[in-house]
Amino acid sequence: MMDRSAELEWILSEMSPAEMLSTLMETRGGIGNGQELYQVLPAEVPPPYFPPPVPAAPSLSYNSKKRRHNEQQDSNRPYVRKPLNAFMLYMKEQRALLKAEVDSKDGGQRP
């Protein structure tokens, strides 16, 4: 096994430029099973990626005009409430049960 300076001297004197490049790109990763392990580095680092700029959002003035127009049309219609969803129906039932239970435990007395 060569020391690092002897290895570099041998690389500079004996190898072609292509062999030199591939050898210099290897780095020692440690020793495993009594042998040196090498980790090969990529030949080129890819350039950083810069995504294209995002176009500006469209103006909201058109949407607000459209919304005002719809509100004027809707003012002629009667207001219809949405029905309760499952959770709200469940809670409405539970509130009544809980109130009845609390009233029966208190005996009608409140502090």
From TrEMBL:
Alphabetized UniProt keyword annotations: Activator, DNA-binding, Nucleus, Transcription, Transcription regulation
Subcellular location as annotated: Nucleus
Keyword field contains Plastid: no
Residue span of region Disordered: 49-79
Assigned GO CC terms: beta-catenin-TCF complex; chromatin
GO terms under biological process: canonical Wnt signaling pathway
Gene Ontology molecular functions: DNA-binding transcription factor activity, RNA polymerase II-specific; RNA polymerase II cis-regulatory region sequence-specific DNA binding
Keyword Isomerase included in the entry's annotation: no
InterPro entries from the UniProt entry: HMG_box_dom_sf (IPR036910), TCF/LEF (IPR024940)
Protein name per the record: Transcription factor 7-like 1
Organism: Dissostichus eleginoides (Patagonian toothfish)
